[in-house]
Amino acid sequence: MKIAIGADHAGYRLKDVVVPFLESLGHEIQDFGWHNEQSVDYPDFAQQVCNQVVAGEVERGILICGTGIGMSIAANKIPGIRCALTHDLFSAKATREHNDTNVLALGERVIGPGVAQEIIRVWLETPFSEGERHIGRIGKVKSLEDKYSTHP
Q1: CATH number assigned to the domain comprising residue 123
Q2: What is the pLDDT of residues 64-119, one digit of tens each?
Q3: Residue 9 needs a FRET pair 20 to 30 A away by CA distance; which of 37, 41, 49, 81 works?
Q4: What range does the domain containing 82 cover?
Q5: Is 151 among the residues known to form the active site?
Q6: CA distance 66 to 2
Q7: Annotated catalytic residue within 27, 50, 65, 83
Q8: Is 65 a catalytic residue?
């Protein structure tokens, strides 16, 4: 699977652990940075990663900042993105089964590398449960997105 990944200054250390982990699982990674603790703005990285997902250049995206909150908020402003902030295995599985998320947000200051790797593994391996109720709900989310966003 092709995966885009991005992190700000508060998430780059976890990203630097996650990238080789993803590669060891056989995934192709597009790394949009960041690579040190010089302060940068998380929306810039969310936009780069999410643009790749929306354009179909990659199948999924992973965003990492200090808490994951800022990245998830920024990502969900982009039409076509369903980003989930996840810090536990149950949520990682549910967000794929029920919400068909295409971007995962993580917080380096909230979870450690081992937990992050297991969350990512579960999130990548869990298929969308295409039950009618879930498809209908995702359709309603898309309707909200269409109603309240402006498309170029």
Answers
A1: 3.40.1400.10
A2: 999 999 999 999 999 999 999 999 999 999 999 999 999 999 999 999 999 999 99
A3: 81
A4: 2-148
A5: no
A6: 24
A7: 65
A8: yes
